[in-house]
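Two proteins were folded this term; both appear here.
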Amino acid sequence: MKRRLMKLAAVGLVAASMAGCGGGASGVGTTAGGSVTNISGIASKGPLRGSTLTIYALNADGTYGAVLGTKSTSSSDGAYSASLGYTGDAIIVVTGGTYIDEATGKVVSLATPLRTVVTGLTGTTAIAVTPMTEAAAEMALADKSAYTLKTRIQNANYVLGAMSRNINIVNTQPADPTIAPSSSATTDSITYGLLLGTVSQMMKDGKAASVQDAITKITTDLADGDYRAETMAPVVKTELANFLANPRNKTGITSLTQTKLTGALDYIAASAVYPPQVQTDLQMAKNIASEVRNTLLSIYNAQPTSVNGVVQTPFQNLSDELKTKLGKTLYTTVARTAWFVQAAATKAPGAYVITDPATGDTLNITISSTNTATITVTSGGTSVASGNLAFTKDGSGNIVSGTFTGTLDAAIGALTANIGFTDTVTNGLLASMSFTGSIAGQGLSLDMTQTGGGLNITFSPQP
């Protein structure tokens, strides 16, 4: 996430203006004046024979630009190569041709295109086109978040790579798992080939109707808001075991314990895999609250030193209050409430256990069909928050207002919170939040009930 900037304004309690993530141009390519970009690689589901490979410039909005080149894949191993007078973002599309199905040995026609989206194409680069890169392309181009196109592409490639035990799915070239690997084949290329063989095994065993169906099931599972494949990862693991036992598997790997794919699939089934550019809702809330607190501390650090004690003493008292009580209280209140709101907004009615990967804090939330939720948060086995959330949604399912009543633990001790909030959502991300109500505890009484009072946070789409 970009670091957010805040300003303190004399409106109500606190008025904050932040620069959030997103915005800016991306995906712009240029005709390379005299320089040449060379790309080569393998198009595989297994290796594609007689396919047409078309390279497009990728526009900043994710649409196809000019055709940069057209090539055919090899008749034996799916290899291709191309030289382009272009640098920038691009999309490679493979259509037609046939492949030998890894699980059955049948010759199969490629029914739907496979794509790879790449950013900053330049120099000499190896680029694979496979069902995994197609899944990443679908995720990236369907992503409606405020991230730039470049970041969305990087995020999608990262998540699909994590499912493949952190293989670079774009630059690693998959080995054909039905042929004994050569002495130069890397572990990643062999593992990549096993994953493609597993897709074929899914179809053989009736777990997917087609390559596209397998891709859709995986991307739908990963892109449902938490970058976790809780449904499909166990299926893929089972089908991987079946492919390893398939006599057509010639990799020499016959047991799940022999491949790190097993651990990767187990992990992504149980835990969300967040790309470096993406933070959990709680982490974003922590950043928001941290900026509120830092703004308050900036007042403390700016206290005057050259005025007489009559003026300095009240300022000193105020800045001490901001530093020791108000800042920490706002930090806790905003961070926790934002987490509760985001959890309730992204989940269907039911009971959920959500763990913050940064702190290990655990949110237990039970959401009703009447737009209410009961909440407890534990840290190290100790309850640090509990209460009730009531909320109102708009026609798109976004939470737009609500209340939280309960207790929160902060650095200064237990707090009793009666918070009202309103918020707006743009492209799936919070655009603004406003808090009113009251927070009390340990000698602190923070009253935000007066007209014009409250904590107002606005997010800018520009970094």
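Next, the second protein.
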Amino acid sequence: MPLAAIWAGARSFRLFPEIFNLPLLEQLREPLGRIDRMFYPRSLTGLSKRDLEALDLQLMADPIMMFESEIGCSGITTAVLEDCFKIQPHMAFGYSLGETSMMLAQRVFEDKSMGQVSAQVLQSPLFHERLAGAKNAVRDYWGMPQVAEDNGQDLWSNFVVVAAAEKVRAAIVPFDRVYLTQINTANEVVIAGDPGLCQQVIDALGCQGFRAPFNYVMHCQAMASEHAELAQMNTMPLKSNLAGHAKLYSTATYEPMDLESQRIGEAIATNLCNPIDLPRLVNQVYNDGARIFVEVGAGSTCGRWISTNLAGKPHMVASLNRRGTDDQVSVVQALAKLVSHRVPLDLMPLYGDVDAPEPKR
């Protein structure tokens, strides 16, 4: 994934300077400051393609930086859509950690909650040594001694597998250290666990499979011990008036969340500790009436999965960030799709404050 594609909001401030005045930006200031040099690397000489690829890998290997970049990306892009172009969603859902980003971008939590979430993520051992680094949550579950830091042991990896979900589920049964963590489409899943055993599963299936660029632990019973910490981290005070708010879906139940603080925290923790079935979620939202999907995340990967899962059904997906496409072009193309499907919106931000020309005499 090119670095430019990950930071979907890279040009948003120049394209839509009015977002500088949004309260949301003040909440984003601290996390964006921490990831500034990763997304805007400084160098006295031009960075080569290999240099940028190395930064990509460094970013994707850091769950905290990935989380904060996702918060920034989805928050800014959602603000552009809702505050600048006056687009109001009826439903929303997130993928994995994207459920927390969804709650923040949809402004369900009280103001300043975004800073609280970031502070808790930084202070918690979850993404330092429990689910990343030494991965002591896995060591506990597998009956291995804990270590202070990653000692270079090839303990855990995630693999994208191009095979039917049911075949993969059957193939991992003999392996107690391999888990089916994500079903992205009917024929694309993610397995995780002991790298050697994961490769044995892929070989037995005789299918295409490759190691994912991230190796932190998510969506399996090996991290069930962290449920309480994740729930506490995602339990935040809510805004006082959420009547009429868009429905927010979670893979905890594959239904709209009850917008109550503790229940939201529990739902997000349950989502993170259990396998994701994205086809089930997408089809549930579709059955509840969704036909137009707007992706505010980076790279349009979820948009591709949505279209695959809804193949043959009438729908439209508009992605705000596509690899290899300029941010401005992506936004205008997405708006054109929405206009053509008669979505109510305001296009005046595209024209600025230019006065109408005087009529010719």
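The mean pLDDT is 86. The radius of gyration is 21 Å. These notes refer to the second protein only.
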